[in-house]
């Protein structure tokens, strides 16, 4: 059974390669070529317009609706409920967040490399991100915020689920190296209203859970000044991603609760690049994440057909 599954995953991974596949750290020319095509950008982003309708509140939600109307949020209520239900398991490396724990070292390696290069820091130093104020949007239980803090960054972690923030605070207080992380139960949109600014804004595996990706990216951009960095990771809307990230991960391997992801909410790399370009974020580097089912390890790849991460810089408007 196991050998058949491995063979099946190998077959999937060798087909349906994304038309946007570039070596990490060498994507600038390709990204510029995409955004300068003679075709209208709307051809790439038409799906976003038709799938970003917010949930209509019931009459019993009038009080909540009134308070929410003061600060627009791109988050889906149904997604908040999903993550609230499993908040207590954030630091269980064998629980629902097992894939994130397994992928985290590879994500951190990409972040460390790109931020050090962008801010001219020495990546070999024990605390290479010293002096950089990083915002971790959708921080969950803090599994990214903590390694960033250990690398010397001043970290603010925000999440719209209060249970997530409570778990993150408790865990961070267990170690003096992470106890100074600022955790807030809030959204990127509210931080924009507060006129907060950061040197780097990171949103990993978040954008596929928001109602309006374009508005979400607009908020991320508003939290930065020209020269700041923005990193986003997500899942490609490809046939192979449906087979691996949904069918295999949720229904065969049971790595994630069923219904965690909706294929229609995924973005292609082309769409993400164009959305970010429209809010003055110039995507300069991109890499894929490759999972080896034989070793159980993740590594960076030039294949962005399933999981991928993008690094961009805020440019002057």
TrEMBL record:
Cell compartment(s), UniProt: Mitochondrion inner membrane
Family to which this protein belongs: Belongs to the class I-like SAM-binding methyltransferase superfamily. UbiG/COQ3 family.
Record keyword S-adenosyl-L-methionine present: yes
Domain of life assignment: Eukaryota
Binding residues annotated for Mg(2+), in chain numbering: 205, 208-209
Cofactor(s) needed for function: Mg(2+)
Catalytic activity: a 3,4-dihydroxy-5-(all-trans-polyprenyl)benzoate + S-adenosyl-L-methionine = a 4-hydroxy-3-methoxy-5-(all-trans-polyprenyl)benzoate + S-adenosyl-L-homocysteine + H(+); a 3-demethylubiquinone + S-adenosyl-L-methionine = a ubiquinone + S-adenosyl-L-homocysteine; a 3-demethylubiquinol + S-adenosyl-L-methionine = a ubiquinol + S-adenosyl-L-homocysteine + H(+)
PANTHER family: METHYLTRANSFERASE, UBIQUINONE BIOSYNTHESIS O-METHYLTRANSFERASE, MITOCHONDRIAL
GO biological process: methylation
Topological category with respect to the lipid bilayer: Peripheral membrane protein
GO cellular component: extrinsic component of mitochondrial inner membrane
InterPro entries reported in the protein's UniProt record: SAM-dependent_MTases_sf, UbiG_MeTrfase
Organism, as annotated: Erythroxylum novogranatense
Protein role: O-methyltransferase required for two non-consecutive steps during ubiquinone biosynthesis. Catalyzes the 2 O-methylation of 3,4-dihydroxy-5-(all-trans-polyprenyl)benzoic acid into 4-hydroxy-3-methoxy-5-(all-trans-polyprenyl)benzoic acid. Also catalyzes the last step of ubiquinone biosynthesis by mediating methylation of 3-demethylubiquinone into ubiquinone. Also able to mediate the methylation of 3-demethylubiquinol into ubiquinol.
HAMAP family: UbiG
UniProt name for this protein: Ubiquinone biosynthesis O-methyltransferase, mitochondrial
Subunit structure: Component of a multi-subunit COQ enzyme complex.
Residues that, per the record, bind S-adenosyl-L-methionine: 107, 138, 159, 204
Main localization category: mitochondrion
Biased composition (Low complexity): 56-73
GO molecular function: 3-demethylubiquinol 3-O-methyltransferase activity; metal ion binding; polyprenyldihydroxybenzoate methyltransferase activity
Pathway given in the UniProt record: Cofactor biosynthesis; ubiquinone biosynthesis
